[in-house]
Amino acid sequence: MPKNAKKPQASPDLSVDIGPLKLKNPVLAASGVFGYGLELQGFCPPEALGAVITKGLSLTPWPGNPGPRIVESGFGLINAIGLENVGLDAFLENSLGPLKRAGAVVGANVLGRSPEDYVELTSRLAQSQVDFIELNVSCPNLRHPGGLSFGSDPKLLASITKDCVKAAGDKPIVTKLPPLVTDIVALAKIAEDNGATAVSLINSLPALSIDLDTRRANLAVGPGGLSGPPIKPLALRQVALCARALSIPVIGLGGIMDYRDALEFIVAGATAVQIGTGILVDPGLPIRLIGDVYHWLGENGLADLGQIRGSLKL
Amino acid sequence: MAKAKAVDNLGGGNHLLTLEVPGAPFSALGRFARLRAWPARGLGPGTLLDRPFSIHLTGPRELSFFIRQVGPATSLLASLSPGTPVRFIGPLGRGLDDLDPNFAAKSWYLVAGGAGLGPMPSIMAALGPRAKLFYGERSHKTQPDTGYLADLELYAPKAELVTATEDGSGYGQKGLVTVPLTECLKVQPRPIVACGPTPMLAALARLANQYSVPYFACVEARMACGLGVCLSCSLPKLDGTNFRVCREGPMVDGLAIDWDNVHT
Questions:
Q1: Which residues of B touch A (CB under 8 A)?
Q2: In a shared domain, residues B23 and B79
Q3: B105 and B228 housed in the same domain
């Protein structure tokens, strides 16, 4: 407990606001590690989280990459799943209803091969029960013909965000930003200026793992996205920079493995956090983490997360 | 949560890890579990994720796993002291009984390549004399001691056993196990259940087609979650769709898989 701790707080308030969305706590399941929301119910009921974000959805089903699709590298994980998903229709028909009936707050992560795909996905989701839409314009496994992720191109980022905000009606748009860029703040501001309700960062980092004996990449398609504990310091820096520069909420993610990691993101200025690889390592992690954050706030005499948000001393 | 009960060194870099697991026995027959005995952040490089292992044998409050040391995670599991807590998530996936509810009434050829021996003992135990196991290794370097194979007979009395090494350096025959298997298929066709490297599983699909016998494959793939969400283990079927080894497998109809495009 810090030296200047106040008396223990009986029941801290974990709720956070992402624009018009009221979340019961700041812990979200990141896209790609929670399926379509129902698969991990036995470990982590989706309604217990601040929100769940779906596996990235495309207009039609995508088959993904050949295997191997994952490899551990150092202390992290590299994946090139290749955005395999059941497609928007199957998600709407099979998963969204049960998720909403369970009381979950649902974010649909969307991805496409063209800006038009993002807009069409968003307009269809605007008519559904999803609570918000996360634009995946930053997956290292998704490139537009120019070779960059959509989100690394300022003009495309601006137009996709703007058009999706329009198509979304009253549903909030969260733009998920690419981490490996020269100026993350500039990109985050583009998302803000074009009407995004929030930004989420960071996505996994473009990375490569090599088998020295065969001189081949360890993943079938070569590079993939690095996630897990090694990316947390980079994520914290990007989140801290964006949180200071933006007036919209920043949702932080990257290598969160316990409540202390999560709270560091809040101190860096994040409004909420997403757990990705940590759920693969331990599907019960988010539930434990929510409890741990609650206890930590109580022990430190803090009434809510607002008392530490952005409190990073520089 | 489970507890390590014993680790037996079987020779050839193979270990039998026995865990005390509340709720056991479970129906194994190809099903698997996620195991980890290290902290959430890992103990060193290459120990971030749990590892999936076929259930070897199951008994009252205990399960065993055939663990071949190939990297840091398997080395950690192979060196556990009795009493060490082990995270156990399982049993997971589908077993032979899911694919063929009457499997135990039939006679089978079981084919194991290398660490693909993992799931075979529970199947042998269910079949007894109706099992004939063909077990191949590349060389003597990875063969378990013969004492271990003798122990298997305790669980599967009168099961037949054919062993081989590709280079002839170990006990048993020289060459691929598919050779003696083919001789048996010629004389007496029986359904096949197999676990091992992809080239072996693909070759068995060709043999099963040739001799018109059913063929079930217990498939291996790298997994991050084992619970159906990450799609790391997604593999192609001949009908153009994918299946998840962790959920629709690991035991699958081996004749429905697009083996030419399986690279695990």
A1: 40-42, 44-50, 89, 221-225, 227-236, 242, 261-264
A2: yes
A3: yes
Dihedral over Cα of B123, B124, B128, B130: its sign: positive
Chain B residue closest in CA terms to A279: B225
Taking CB atoms and an 8 Å limit, are B224 and A79 in contact across chains?
yes
Q: What is the pLDDT of residue B157?
A: 86
- Is A33 in contact with B230 (Cβ distance < 8 A)? yes
Whole-model pTM? Answer: 0.95
- Contact present, A203 and A225 (Cβ < 8 Å): yes
Cα radius of gyration (chain A) = 19
DSSP-based three-state secondary structure for A259: helix
Span B62-96, pLDDT tens digits? 999 999 999 999 999 999 999 999 999 999 999 99
Give chain A positions within 8 Å (CB) of B246. none
pLDDT of the residue at A3: 53
Residue that finishes a domain, picked among B41, B71, B92? B92
Out of B45, B49, B263, the one facing A220 most closely (by C-beta) is B263
For residue B224, the distance in angstroms to the closest alpha carbon of chain A comes to: 6
Same domain, B108 and B16: no
Side-chain-facing half-sphere of A172: CA atoms under 13 Å: 21
Q: How many domains does chain B have?
A: 2
pLDDT tens readout for residues A44-85: 999 999 999 999 999 999 999 999 999 999 999 999 999 999
- Which chain A residues are within 8 Å of B261, Cβ to Cβ? 66
**Are the C-beta atoms of B88 and B61 separated by less than 8 Å?**
no
Q: Please tell me which residue of chain A has the smallest CA distance to B240.
A: A63
Q: Among residues A278, A280, A69, which one has the least CA distance to residue B89?
A: A280
How many Å apart are CA B246 and CA A144, to the nearest integer? Answer: 32
What is the domain extent for residue B199?
Answer: 96-261
Do residue B165 and residue B211 come from a single domain?
yes
Catalytic status, residue A139: yes
CB contact under 8 A, A281 and B40: yes
Residue ranges and CATH numbers for the domains of chain A are 16-307 (3.20.20.70)
Model ipTM value:
0.94
Using pLDDT thresholds of 50, 70 and 90, give the confidence band for residue A2.
low
In CATH, what number is assigned to the domain containing residue B239? 3.40.50.80
pLDDT band at B263, cuts 50/70/90? confident
